[in-house]
Amino acid sequence: MGRIGFRPLRAAAWGLIGLWLTGLGFARFVAQQGPLEADTQSVARPKPSARTKSVMTAAGAQAPSKQQAPAPAVPFKPDPSATSNQDDAPLFRSDVRLVRMLATVRDGEGKLAGNLKRDDFQIVDSGVAQEVAVFEATTEKPLSVALLIDCSASTQREHRTELDSVRTFVRSLFHAGNAGDAATLYSFNADVTLEASWTRSVERIERALTRLHSEGATALYDAITFGAQDLKARDGRHVAVIISDGGNTFGKTTYMQALEAAHSADTVVYSVVIVPVAEDAGRNTGGEHALTTLSASTGGRTFFPGTTKDLDGAFAEILRDLRTQYLIGYYPHGLSATRDRFHEVKLSLRRAGYTVSSRRGYFEPSPSRGFRAVSR
Question: What does pTM read for this prediction?
Fold first, then answer.
């Protein structure tokens, strides 16, 4: 009996030894793998959506690390002393193209003066005197006029009066002058719309004017840029006539971009500012000032007509200016290399008692990366 009783005990002992060895192996496995999370074995983590990624990226951009300095503001005219001296920093020079200037001259009584000679004019570019290479008094170059009409909601009150004056202006424009003169018509609110492409047909312009109505915001600088780009491809003289209250409330283009577009296309900008109300509280004085500055920088003028008679008179003065313009050109020379793309230009007269209106500068074309130029 003793033998029979011993066999079950021996089997039980071997069972206990097996369990002990299994437990020991599992403990070693856990020690090697580290602690386990309760939900990682059965639940997968969701991938972030595109929206989540964008929000995360924006949040990261709004909260930069302490080591990350904010981007510095870029001034209109960089300080030369603060400019980097790195070899890959582009340098610009001006002796690369003809700079054209349309000039309007008036005597001491404000009357247009069309009897001046080449030697009466003097040009200074960035402080350096230049030589007049092209001179035409009362030039017969064909005239391209881009009409940019504000059709935003803020101009609704005076809209019909504006369009009547534009009709009169277009009829007068095509009645006399060069047979190659042409006009195009853009309207702008939140969108910029080409209403009539280049034409000499008064009827076509008038039909386009009848389709205009006022609504929405004002993409003024977008309209100036589109109009300038359209003018750039034209031969002869380039003029933009803007009818607006001056406020830019919409669009992708900045004031500086619109100004550069106008200068790059050699465009003279005339602005007819329609003030919606007489009180300053209802006016966009900042927009009016910006439009005035842009017009003066390109050699144009700004008008603030208060009555229908004043409005007709403003367009008549613009037309007289266009019929009595000097075309002056020069090839810049003697200028030092600079990283400032804008060159200040002053056109003046050697005769006393006269005033001249012309562009006040020009922009160098943007070079490709790695471009370096030096002055001669």
Answer: 0.73
